[in-house]
């Protein structure tokens, strides 16, 4: 593939890569590298994990609020009103992924991400006062509009800081920390719902009031703590910044962003592998969204009370964190992605079969643990798989946005196939989710076959130019 760098991009790159500090030995360089990257980790991962955890909480608390009394109050049990209110979030969420991610660098990651956090926090707060399900649906549309750019923007920022075989551990820790924290959303919702009647406000309204207020507070904090891209960061010394940029340049040759043009956007979108990553992401987010929106409802259908269903919704998220981080560590250590995606997809399939077909509720509940572990682990794995096989800032921006946009498609499917009339077992929805996992396995096989062939031809000198226009680059399998 021809490189899309223009002459001014190359000149900018050469000017930006200043000489690194003079280090006396390999041991001294290793210590300097550990100290620098530890500082990067501490300035990036905790704050983005905390912010995204509340993005997830604000996105998925609809099911908990319904269980806590919003359903009867807004007549959500009529027809498919709950599914409509749920699915409408994803329309702007999908449509605004790529446009939003293309302007992150123009406005700066810190400024842009802080503004959209303020936006969705205000919408979440406003949801507590909606009088009808129609206004609730409108708020969900606005929530999707503001949250659209956040996740792909964070993935874009994280992948810009780390080398290819460091990134999955960071993505896994960021994503799974957020998911684990958000997994306690049902418990928090239950606690907040106990305020029912205070100030003449319903318990389900208190859920939105408190969680929306926390998001607004975090947005203010984020303005001072959110990181920017490496070349414009303010927390590293100039020498450390040069060191980080040099590491990225040596690893994949795109430490300095290339100029973004409409031609490049369409050129990147013509690469079928970007669409394959998106479909993979859709397949693994489908069960994640299904659990987020319906786990408390499914548990209530097993016979537990509303309170117990909310409390039992949280435990399946804790083992998922440990599982995903373990597979991420293995994946980075062995510099391999596809095989570990397959293993985690098989874990999801096992969990789905137990939940869908076992006659015993205890076994069905254990299946939810496996399903959550497998699907949650696949998400950072696929993001890393995509990030490893992309060169160039503009393609990274387009690719991360397209991948996460397909995650929204997974949310739409989850919101529509788990139908009200299929309560309490939701077997058709579970069948669709199971089919998505087999599609994921097929896509991993197809991309692995494709990349293996291109790597072999490149090593044999049988291609017209270097892979991704970058000398020495080979695809990660």
TrEMBL record:
Keywords recorded for this protein, A-Z: Membrane, Transmembrane, Transmembrane helix, Transport
SUPFAM superfamilies: MFS general substrate transporter
One CC-aspect GO term: membrane
Highest taxon above the source species: Eukaryota
One Pfam family linked to the record: MFS_1
All residue ranges annotated as the Major facilitator superfamily (MFS) profile domain in the record: 44-453
Membrane-topology annotation of the record: Multi-pass membrane protein
Subcellular location(s) of the protein: Membrane
Membrane-crossing segments per the record: 40-62, 82-104, 111-129, 135-159, 171-192, 204-226, 274-298, 310-331, 338-357, 363-385, 397-418, 430-452
GO molecular function: transmembrane transporter activity
First-listed, main subcellular location of the protein, grouped into a coarse class: membrane
Protein name per the record: Major facilitator superfamily domain-containing protein
Native source organism of the sequence: Mycena albidolilacea
Source taxonomy: Eukaryota, Fungi, Dikarya, Basidiomycota, Agaricomycotina
């Amino acid at each position: 593939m021809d490189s899309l760098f223009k002459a001014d991009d190359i000149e900018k790159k050469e000017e930006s890569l200043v000489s690194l500090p003079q280090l006396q030995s390999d041991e001294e360089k290793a210590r300097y590298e550990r100290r620098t990257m530890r500082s990067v980790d501490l300035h990036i991962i905790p704050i983005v994990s905390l912010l995204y955890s509340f993005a997830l909480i604000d996105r998925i608390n609809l099911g908990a609020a319904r269980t806590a009394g919003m359903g009867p109050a807004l007549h959500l049990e009529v027809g498919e009103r709950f599914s409509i209110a749920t699915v409408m979030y994803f329309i702007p969420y999908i449509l605004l992924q790529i446009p939003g991610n293309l302007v992150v660098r123009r406005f700066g990651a810190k400024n842009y991400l802080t503004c959209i956090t303020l936006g969705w926090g205000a919408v979440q707060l406003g949801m507590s006062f909606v009088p009808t399900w129609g206004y609730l649906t409108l708020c969900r549309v606005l929530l999707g509009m503001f949250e659209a750019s956040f996740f792909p923007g964070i993935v874009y920022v994280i992948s810009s800081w780390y080398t290819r075989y460091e990134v999955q551990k960071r993505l896994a820790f960021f994503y799974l920390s957020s998911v684990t924290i958000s997994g306690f959303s049902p418990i928090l919702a239950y606690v907040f719902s106990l305020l029912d009647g205070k100030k003449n406000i319903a318990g389900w309204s208190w859920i939105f009031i408190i969680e929306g207020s926390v998001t607004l507070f975090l947005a203010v904090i984020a303005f001072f703590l959110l990181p920017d891209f490496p070349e414009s960061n303010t927390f590293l010394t100039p020498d450390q910044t040069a060191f980080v940029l040099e590491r990225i340049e040596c690893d994949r040759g795109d430490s300095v962003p290339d100029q973004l043009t409409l031609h490049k956007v369409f050129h990147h979108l013509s690469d079928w592998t970007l669409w394959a990553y998106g479909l993979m992401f859709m397949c693994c987010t489908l069960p994640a969204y299904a659990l987020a929106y319906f786990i408390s409802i499914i548990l209530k259908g097993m016979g537990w009370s509303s309170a117990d269903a909310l409390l039992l919704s949280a435990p399946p998220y804790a083992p998922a964190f440990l599982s995903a981080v373990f597979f991420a560590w293995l994946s980075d250590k062995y510099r391999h992605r596809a095989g570990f995606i397959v293993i985690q997809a098989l874990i999801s399939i096992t969990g789905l079969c137990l939940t869908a077909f076992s006659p015993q509720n205890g076994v069905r509940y254990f299946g939810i643990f496996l399903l959550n572990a497998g699907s949650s682990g696949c998400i950072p794995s696929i993001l890393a798989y995509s990030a490893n096989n992309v060169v160039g800032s503009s393609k990274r921006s387009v690719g991360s946005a397209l991948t996460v946009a397909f995650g929204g498609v997974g949310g739409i499917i989850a919101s529509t196939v788990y139908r009200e009339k299929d309560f309490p077992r939701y077997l058709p929805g579970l069948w669709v989710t199971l089919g998505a996992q087999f599609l994921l396995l097929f896509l991993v096989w197809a991309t692995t076959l494709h990349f293996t062939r291109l790597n072999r031809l490149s090593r044999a000198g049988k291609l017209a130019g270097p892979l991704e226009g970058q000398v020495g680059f080979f695809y990660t399998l």
